[in-house]
Amino acid sequence: xxxxxxxxTWIGESGxxxxxxxxxxxxxxxxxxxxxxxxxxxQKKQGISYEEMLSHHYFERHTEEFYEFxxxxxxxxxxxxxxxxxxxxxxxxxxxxxxxxxxxxxxxxQMAGSRNVIELHGNENRYFCLSCGKRYDMQWVLGYEGVxxxxxxxxxxxxVVLYGETLNEQDLARAVRxxxxxxxxxxxxxSLVVYPVAGLVNYLSPQAKLVILNREETPYDGKANLxxxxxLCEALAAVSKE
Length: 242
What we know:
Layout: H1 3-13, E1 17-21, E2 44-45, E3 48-49, H2 50-53, H3 56-61, H4 63-74, H5 83-93, E4 99-102, H6 108-112, E5 117-119, E6 122-129, E7 135-137, H7 138-142, E8 156-160, H8 169-181, E9 184-188, E10 209-213, E11 226-228, H9 232-240
Parallel strand pairs: 1-4, 1-9, 4-5, 9-10, 10-11
Antiparallel strand pairs: 2-3, 6-7, 6-8
Helix pairs in contact: 1-9, 5-9
């Protein structure tokens, strides 16, 4: 049986399917991935890697440069959901997808209509004051010159997990629970090398099926029941058709 048809059959039969996604889900929306041969983390600015510039250490010590980098390289305010986002939203609406666990911070899953989304790395559309907790959004930050300061004078930071910071424990615990209870986990657009997120695969029960939908090999391909190398958007769009 064709691999995509097999996946569609398994989703139809499963009473508990979850989706674990990464940067590859959003590349068709014009947002670059991170760890491919041409990904953002392979690039440097003035000798500093993009990964370093997204670290807690860099944010604290070079706040102005951090925000300049964020505004001009990392934020994509015009990005819209693609076929993959809409396909997953359809599956959720039909009761065939229990949850989306994402490493992405772009908020495109929610924009497409998905409701139960666990954003393990936060959301680039949310910002908050480190002093009073007041909330701001991306448009406010983009329109602010220099380092964003709250009306109280406090420093405003993005509500995302920077390198060197730990994930939100409650979000991670929810993701683990969904993985433990899943009958089918579909992994899409992620290299499965960043932990602890990649380790969620290990929480699947022995009876659960694992499907990996990624252009490049992952360390978990040998553990998967099905590996699909094709276009992620087209595959998920085909799977979501009634």
